[in-house]
Amino acid sequence: MSEDVAAATTVPATAAETSPDNPWPLQLLSQKLKMHIDRAPSAWVEGQVIEMNRRGTNAYLTLRDIDAEISLPASAWTKVLDRQEIPLERGSRVVALIKAEFWLKTGRLNMSVKDIRPVGLGDLLARIERLRHALAAEGLFSDARKKRLPLLPHRIGLITGRDSDAKKDVLRNAALRWPAVEFEIREVAVQGNTAVAQVIAALRELDADPHVDVIVIARGGGALEDLLPFSNEELIRAVSAAATPVVSAIGHEADRPILDDVADLRASTPTDAAKRIVPDVVEELARVRQARDQLRRGAVRLVDRETDRLASLRSRPVLASPEVMVSIRHDDVERLKGRSQAAVTTAVVRAADQLVHLKAQVRALSPQKTLDRGYAVVQLAGAGSDPGVRRDVVRHPDQAPSGMPLTVRVAGGRFTAESTGGQEPAEE
Q1: Can you tell me the distance from the alpha carbon of 116 to that of 52, in angstroms, rounded to the nearest whole number?
Q2: pLDDT in the model for residue 411
Q3: Alpha carbon distance 411, 408 (integer Å)
Q4: pLDDT at 1
Q5: Could you give the CA distance from residue 161 to residue 172 in angstroms, rounded to a whole number?
Q6: Which residues contact 206 (CB under 8 A, 6 or more apart)?
Q7: Residue 390: its pLDDT value, please?
Q8: Could you count the other beta carbons within 10 Å of the beta carbon of residue 270?
Q9: Total Cβ atoms within 10 A of residue 93
Q10: What is the pLDDT, as a whole number, of residue 90?
Q11: pLDDT under 50 in the chain at which residues?
Q12: 3-state secondary structure (DSSP) of residue 42
């Protein structure tokens, strides 16, 4: 007994402590795995039934993920399946309550289905609407996030099914409207569990291409289950994050996947998408002709208006007879010149008259005029006869005593005399 206890105490407590020299017994590993798996809680999962076999009271199912290539075998009691009002079939979309179980003796892991429920159309619609409201609350559908489509895209990225009618509709209608348009086509699965991954990969590839101006995701009509990939949250977020404008053309007018809400433009059908992303060459040529006619009429009106303005300006006197402006100024100059000459002549004549008058006055007041009237100027002769010698004018008899030589100046000249003495002037 003591030897068994000693052996038990030498077993490693954890898997990390095991070694080639001190391994775990297989039973211990199986027990620990079972204990660990038994502690794992049950989980509701969603998938599609791709295989189902009934064997007595047991049923064996294979569930596949809706959006990925992942399958999971499971087993259930047939009574769990029989509780459904509508029998489950291959291809049914279900939600199942699964509990992992580990069979200790065989070491087999089993997924036991405790409950299973088919996902009806109403359930799918309700889930889509819940997701739609949640994404709208985040602002993914806001008009401020939507990008404007180019007026005339040079190259269009097209994501569609392989050799699908949607592809043919888009290519044919776009070429009819604008023959020069180019396409970069990515053919992908548009339904099934691989559709989401392939569409996202094609979207990111086209979005990274700088030559692609707009991306169209097109698919024809179908059942709600077939259009579910275009309401997938991962795809919706990828479209929202794309830098290139995205056009949604899924199904018919009545179909409304969430992709329509997040896309920059929703087209009711693939044909409608082709009509809305490229202009009609016939209509554009008609608009060009109309614009040219408008430009021509505008140019003609402008020329006519300016011609009338020029004619009006030319009819004005200043332009009709431009010499009038010079002749008027010439007449003004001549008139002013005559006035100036008259003013100068008048001033000169007046000044000449004043000069004559002043000259007469000066002459009237000159000593010569006084002498001409019979007066004489008596001066002392002085010593010598030098005319430069000053001679004093005799103003009083006392200045000329008797015998004083004198010089007498009269109108006709001068002569000498001798004073005989002064006399008092006679009283009047």
Answers
A1: 13
A2: 80
A3: 10
A4: 44
A5: 16
A6: 157, 159, 184, 186, 212, 215, 244
A7: 56
A8: 30
A9: 17
A10: 79
A11: 1-6, 8, 383-385, 389, 428
A12: coil
Helix axis angle, 121-138 relative to 233-241, nearest 10°?
A: 30
Query: What Rg, from alpha-carbon coordinates, does the chain have?
Result: 66
Q: Whats the size of the chain, residue-wise?
A: 428
Cα 245 to the chain's mean position, in Å? 19
Give tens-digit pLDDT for 316-373. Answer: 777 777 777 777 788 888 889 999 999 999 999 999 999 998 888 887 777 877 787 7
Q: pTM (2 decimals)?
A: 0.56
pLDDT of residue 47: 85
Structure tokens of 44?
A: 């509701």
Name the nearest CA neighbour of 98 among 107, 84, 109. 109
Query: For residues 45 and 111, what is the distance between their CA atoms, to the nearest angstrom?
Result: 12
Residue 379: how many CB atoms within 10 A of its CB?
Answer: 18
> How do the domains of the chain map onto residue ranges?
2-123, 145-279, 370-383+391-417
Which CATH number is 145-279 given? 3.40.50.261
Superfamily the domain 2-123 falls into: Nucleic acid-binding proteins (2.40.50.140)
